[in-house]
């Protein structure tokens, strides 16, 4: 079966998008105008709609250029967000608000009384102006951004991170509680000291040996973790094993995710060979799950439904591609 590759990072996506725009711009030299629809802002006096103009004169009405720019830019950036494995719908909603706030600020800043310099007064038919140029819109946008940031800080500890899980156990519990009775399977959670039935359980992160044996966490990464929880299939851990791990430093989440993926892919198994793995990140949390393909896919979908900020770092079949040695080895694996 096909392996789902790791989403692209921001640098690669930015390079890809920039290259596409650069190539489209170069086509202008051969007489092909691919970017003439883009809106540009000019000075206006009486009607704000006069500020909007297409990059290629006469190609579109001003409002047409504005909405064409919004639609094409939103579509292109949404594709980039998809390539990075993030929530496209959430991005589009946020970007729409930011785009039109920015356009309002830029349009107001292009008013001739604000933007015109002394040599432009006669052409604009006005007696005076502040002479700030059309870039004054950037000042308005900056003031707006600072105002919104100040309002956001007043809500710190209230609205901020309201959806963030309190701990690893809360994270897995929220996902497990979203299962229907038909979707649930015989499960157990926790570690040897704090085992619970039919629910996720807290896991002692200070026990590096248990983390490695039960959740396949490399022992050298145990020091990165300050909280953990687990959920496993009661009959066979290779059918389903899930661990939620909170790192002390958010910068270590990507490293832990990569190390977990490598450890699971290179593990030697007994009592059944798991089909696939999924590893996701959510702020300071790394969630790993491997086992039966259908069970893993269901958990992945439930996780993203419960936490829209959860980003899938790895979604792969086990033992394929670079990790395949042509043999099905089976030596060690925990059985719950």
Please identify the structural class as seen in this structure: alpha+beta
Uncertain residue ranges: 326-336
Order of helices and strands: HEEHHHHHHEEEHEEHEEHE
Major β-sheet, in short? 8 strands, antiparallel
End-to-end distance: 27 Å
Number of helices: 10
Shape call = elongated
* Whole-number mean pLDDT: 87
Report the C-alpha radius of gyration, rounded: 27 Å
Measured as a percent range, the helix fraction is 25-40%
Strand content: 15-25%
Number of strands: 10
Overview of this protein structure:
- The chain has 336 residues and is α+β, with helices and mostly antiparallel strands.
- The chain has helices spanning 10-26, 62-83, 88-109, 112-115, 121-124, 136-154, 168-177, 208-215, 253-265, 293-306; strands at residues 39-41, 52-54, 187-189, 196-197, 201-203, 225-233, 240-247, 276-282, 285-291, 311-317.
- Strands 3, 4, 5, 6, 7, 8, 9 and 10 form an 8-stranded antiparallel sheet that branches.
- Helix 2 packs antiparallel against helix 3 (88-109) and helix 7 (168-177) packs across helix 10.
Key words describing this protein structure:
elongated; two-stranded antiparallel ribbon; alpha+beta; single chain; 336 residues; 15% strand
